[in-house]
Specification:
By secondary structure, this protein is of the alpha/beta class. About 35% of the residues lie in helices and about 20% in strands. The strands form 9 sheets. The chain has a 7-stranded mixed β-sheet with strand order 16-28-29-30-26-27-17, covered by helices on one side. Strands 21-18-24-23-22-25 form a 6-stranded mixed β-sheet, with no helix packed on it. It comes from Quiscalus mexicanus (Great-tailed grackle). GO terms for molecular function: ATP binding; glutamine-tRNA ligase activity.
Length: about 750
């Protein structure tokens, strides 16, 4: 432990200070209990300025137990401003409280009498921890070991020594099952696989589950910077919010949301929902060169498609006037300056310091005004903040010149704020309590706190979580644009992509995407998942949601020569065979039906169970079995039609198989999708040296132009979903027209073992 501590320079220095202070009061020899308390105080104290204060209590033997120390640490964390109220501190930490053995004996006796009947019934299988907890709750500052010894002694006196029956393990009681609406499997991500702990997303996000601070208790967060104005600002913040949790989802409107954003949406909106709060949808529209109206519309559509309703829809541009005013104030406070270094000069981690860093405040104010008036060209001047970020980046840019009209403010501005400047201040304006973002923004946490404090405005807390990535795909805007430009995909919503619009078009239900995010869990570590795990979530939802229909992709005509009626019969097909209470639909059954080419063979191999000469099959839902009488071929020898006879299934021998079919069908186009890329990591040069465009799967899309589907789907609309029996789950594509429906295969009925 000592060697481990020495490797931590900061902890070693604090511990040395604590030991030297204690020795000055107690002499050179410190007992083990005192040493342990000193170590824990040095290791667990968030703000070293209180170390001497706490060590004084330990040295004077006024803090004697770890329980008291924990209370003391919590007190100084909850009271960041000086001076501390000593009397209140001592009350909170049990200083001077003396618990006698008689008090412990009486408290334990009262608890045992309360649970006497259960103890006698369950004996040593009863939870002794419950007795301990209740006794400790009555005597908060009692020594834990002494309480435990007294519990053990009194239980032994009541029950006597343990018998063989007492030593047997207590049988486990099955846990009550969660209601389906709450139930989602979740969590541990290990090498792309998931465990099977059952927990809903809301359970993962509710209350203390994430160890997040409570609204108004920002200062309890490790690394949060407390200033003389912090407590007053938090008081104002609570007066506005009423202690409500407030989060925000802040996308840039310069591209379409992808599967990684689904986790961010679920986390931000879900955390607010789970804790009775609200979530803003705020567009980070600070770069007018790349923003388009279609992205604003698509982002909101996707948020609502996933089942979330924003508390308010805002834009960073709503606050441009306030942000500009604050920029002037930052300059006046000597915390920002106008710089003329070129973009290339300040790129990277070790750029040269700006020669303009110490220019006079008045000069920077005049130059910043010139920037606003358009007197500098693009790249000729920036406003930079005076700070060093965690990653070593020095003086990040706050404003830059861009002569591009803004979609909302028009030509009013030719200077636009950066993310580093805008984000935390917009959070402050909206009184966000928890600013949730992915781990790559951790390097910006110090600048987040610094900027709010430099302007003396309310400072929210930034919390980071791990990104969600999928294998066999790319999600960067630049790469998707290249795929569209080269014709590899049709657009942002091509069903082979993992943008949210693409997943919707392919037929993935929003519940499946939300369930997938819940299964990945709210992890701090980055999660890289296999697509088949998302597909498994889709199958679970679609099995419950998608009504059954029948379709034939490669039709083979079958004529029933002894059809039992002069015209088509109507067959009732259950929408959900496992639950017929959910209704039926009618399909025509005519003398001419169509089956899959692959459901017929001229010779039945061993193990082949479907239609062949001499081997009849049942037609699903009809109550009839068909037997081949004649095989008709074209001039090339290809089978083009079968003539069969039918027999009622209740009088014939049960066939080896039942196959799907269509009769009086609708013509349709079916699009069958596979992975877009051949390798797991198409962007990894070690895996794909030629770049991601060289890794395209030539078989990622197969279009079946002349498929047939039963007429029950005639009135379906785009995005309606069906299970085509024996084939998979399919969704109606927006390309569908009158007389020619188009279906996208979402997933097959079962996972392809080769993909897992």
């Amino acid at each position: 432990k000592a060697r481990e501590t020495l490797r931590n320079g900061a902890l070693s220095a604090l511990l040395r200070r604590a030991v030297l202070q204690a020795r000055s009061a107690l002499g050179p020899a410190l007992d083990k209990a005192t040493g342990t308390l000193l170590y824990n105080a040095a290791a667990r104290l968030k703000d070293p300025k209180h170390l001497g204060f706490l060590v004084g209590y330990i040295a004077r033997k006024e803090i004697l137990t770890d329980l008291q120390l924990s209370a003391a640490l919590e007190y100084v964390r909850s009271h960041p401003l000086e001076p501390l109220d000593v009397a209140d501190f001592e009350r909170a930490c049990g200083v001077g409280v003396c618990i006698t053995p008689e008090q412990i004996e009486e408290a334990v006796e009262a608890v045992i009498n309360k649970h006497r009947a259960e103890l006698l019934a369950e004996r040593y299988h009863f939870s002794m921890g419950l007795l301990m907890g209740e006794a400790r709750s009555q005597l908060r500052w009692a020594d834990g070991k002494t309480v435990k010894n007294e519990v053990d002694l009194q239980v032994l006196h009541l029950l006597g020594p343990k018998t063989e029956a007492d030593l047997e393990k207590k049988p486990k009681v099955a846990k009550a099952r969660l209601a389906p609406a709450e139930k989602q499997k979740v969590a541990v991500v290990e090498n792309g696989d998931m465990g099977t702990e059952t927990k809903s997303l809301l359970e993962q996000l509710r209350g203390e589950a994430l160890k997040f601070h409570k609204p108004g208790e920002n200062y309890k967060t490790e690394g949060y910077v407390v200033t003389p104005n912090t407590m007053a600002l938090l008081k104002q913040h609570l007066a506005i919010t009423g202690g409500q949790v407030r989060t925000r989802f802040p996308p840039e409107p310069n591209g379409i949301l992808h599967i990684g954003h689904a986790k961010a949406i679920n986390f931000n909106f879900g955390y607010a929902k789970a804790n009775g709060g609200v979530c803003f949808l705020r567009y980070d529209d600070t770069n007018p060169e790349k923003e388009e109206e279609k992205y604003f519309t698509a982002i909101r559509e996707m948020v609502e498609w996933l089942g979330y309703q924003p508390y308010a829809v805002t834009h960073a541009s709503d606050y441009f006037d306030q942000l500009y005013t604050w920029a002037l104030e930052l300059i006046r406070r000597g915390q920002a300056y106008v710089c003329h270094q070129k973009v290339e000069e300040i790129k990277g981690h070790n750029p040269p310091p700006s020669p303009w860093r110490d220019r006079p405040v008045e000069e920077s104010l005049l130059l910043f005004e010139d920037m606003r008036k358009g007197k500098f060209g693009e790249g000729e001047a920036t406003l930079r903040m005076k700070l060093v970020m965690e990653d070593g980046k020095m003086d990040p840019v706050a404003y830059r010149v861009k002569f591009t009209p803004h979609h909302r403010t028009g030509d009013k501005w030719c200077i636009y704020p950066t993310y580093d400047y805008t984000h935390c201040l917009c959070d402050s304006i909206e009184n966000i309590t928890h600013s949730l973002c992915t781990k790559e923004f951790q390097a910006r946490r110090s600048s987040y706190f610094w900027l709010c404090n430099a302007l003396d405005v309310y400072c929210p807390v930034q919390w980071e979580y791990g990104r969600l990535n999928l294998l066999y795909t790319v999600v960067s805007k630049r790469k998707i644009i290249r795929l569209v430009e080269t014709g590899a995909v049709r657009d942002w919503d091509d069903p082979r992509l993992f943008t949210l619009t693409a997943l919707r078009r392919r037929g993935f239900p929003p519940e499946a995407i939300n369930n997938f995010c819940a299964r990945v869990g709210v992890t701090v570590a980055q999660a890289t998942m296999e697509p088949h795990l998302l597909e498994a979530c889709a199958r679970e939802v679609l099995n419950e949601q998608a009504p059954r229909a029948m379709a034939v992709l490669e039709p083979l005509k079958v004529t029933i020569t002894n059809f039992p009626a002069p015209k088509a019969l109507e067959v009732l097909v259950p929408n959900f065979p496992a639950d017929e209470s959910r209704g039926f639909h009618k399909v025509p059954f005519h003398q001419t039906v169509y089956i899959e080419e692959t459901d017929f063979r001229e010779e039945a191999d061993k193990g082949y169970k479907r239609l062949a000469p001499g081997q009849p099959v049942g037609l699903r839902h009809t109550g009839y079995i068909i037997t081949v009488q004649n095989v008709i071929k074209d001039v090339s020898g290809r089978v083009i039609e079968l003539e069969v006879t039918c027999t009622k299934s209740d009088v014939a021998e049960k066939p080896k198989a039942f196959i799907h079919w269509v009769s009086v069908p609708l013509a349709c186009e079916v699009r069958l999708y596979e992975r877009l890329f051949l390798h797991k990591n198409p962007e990894d040069p070690s895996e794909v040296p030629g770049g991601f465009l060289s890794d395209l799967n030539p078989d990622s899309l197969r279009v079946v132009h002349n498929a047939l589907v039963d007429s029950s789907v005639r009135s379906a609309r785009p995005f309606d979903k069906f299970q085509f029996e024996r084939l998979g789950y399919f969704s109606v594509d927006p390309d569908s027209e009158e007389g020619k429906m188009v279906f996208n295969r979402t997933v097959t009925l079962k996972e392809d073992p080769g993909k897992a």
